[in-house]
Amino acid sequence: MQSGSGISMGRTAYQHYIPPNFGYVENDLYRCGQPNELNFPFMEKLGLRCIVWLAPEEPNQNVMNFVDDQEIQLHHLGVLESGNASDPITEDMILEAFNLILDKRNHPMAIMCNIGRHRTGTVVGCLRKLQRWNLASIFEEYRRFAGPKVRLLNEQFIELFDTDLVRIPVDPPEWL
Description:
By secondary structure, the protein is of the alpha/beta class. The chain has helices at 40-45, 61-70, 91-101, 118-130, 135-146, 152-160, and strands at residues 4-9, 12-17, 23-26, 29-33, 50-53, 73-76, 109-113.
């Protein structure tokens, strides 16, 4: 789903379309699926420094060009040994993502996978657990973005994720 908001600047109106499953996670931390060319003006307004890419395959060439043009650091964490996109996210991937997410120097940041549902939702769910949200609220947020394609294994992963494994930096983001 994409929605547009017209922003009038003088005589020219610009349309900004948000990427699929876009959401505000915390201050300077966003989530979404892979953006396309129509989403780039909106994404540019976020002033991203870093993208954590969780899908097994590389982002498409248009996204790679956008990342290069905007001088955004892209961290591709989703590479799996099996190469099967439906394999669940791993604990190591979550911990590696948290090393980037909890480093304020990487903000503003976006967490992305192809559609922004499962891998992105699992990382955000584990972040919510680290923030001490209750499980009902974590699962409600996960399900809101997953829609009818909820994966119970992802919810189980979030529930069983051991937050004691996460290294909290000396100067964490204020929302932690």
